[in-house]
């Protein structure tokens, strides 16, 4: 249901899950912009329980610190939408959910800017035991299109983040 609503193919999501399972990896998310939609898309496909540990919805800025362990000083200094916040969200998801891979998402869906950051700005963090990286993009479209695009981006980056 959520997979189709996001404009994804069930086979695409199943391939991400299969990639995780083949590598013996588990995943967890800490999501702001997407408020749990990455985790929901993964668990919308049968067999997800073999690899999905859980997800944190950290929509409010203070929840990023409280639940995901993002540095409060960083949040005060740069705001909630920043590549370093995505990085710390990914690390927090990985650590707090005891997963092999953490995914962190933050951004601005719009229609208005947030803390001076333009709508469509998306930061996706990936954290494994070997590395932490962030991909930042600007997506076009309305609120729904930006959030759906952020989910698609996170799922596309997930298998790559395992190498």
TrEMBL record:
Using the record's annotation, list all stretches that form the CinA C-terminal domain.
14-158
Which Pfam family is one of those matched by this entry? CinA
- Is Hydrolase one of the keywords UniProt gives this record? yes
InterPro entries per the record?
A: CinA-like_C, CinA_C
Identify the domain of life.
Bacteria
* Gene Ontology MF terms: hydrolase activity
Where does this protein come from, organism-wise? Allosaccharopolyspora coralli
Protein's name according to its UniProt entry: Nicotinamide-nucleotide amidohydrolase family protein
Instruction: Give a yes or no for keyword Secreted in this entry.
Output: no
Keyword list, A-Z: Hydrolase
């Amino acid at each position: 249901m959520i997979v189709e609503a996001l404009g994804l193919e069930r086979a695409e999501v199943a391939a991400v899950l299969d990639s995780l399972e083949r590598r013996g990896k588990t995943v967890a998310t800490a999501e702001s912009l997407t408020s749990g939609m990455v985790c929901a898309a993964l668990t919308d496909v049968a067999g997800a329980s073999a690899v999905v540990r859980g997800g944190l919805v950290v929509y409010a800025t203070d929840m990023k610190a409280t639940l995901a362990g993002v540095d409060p000083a960083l949040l005060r200094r740069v705001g909630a939408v920043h590549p370093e916040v995505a990085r710390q969200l990914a690390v927090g998801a990985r650590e707090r959910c005891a997963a092999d891979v953490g995914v962190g998402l933050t951004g601005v869906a719009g229609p208005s800017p947030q803390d001076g950051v333009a709508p469509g700005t998306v930061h996706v963090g990936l954290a494994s035991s070997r590395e932490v990286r962030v991909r930042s993009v600007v997506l076009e479209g309305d609120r729904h299109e930006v959030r759906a695009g952020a989910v698609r981006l996170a799922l596309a980056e997930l298998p790559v983040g395992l190498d």
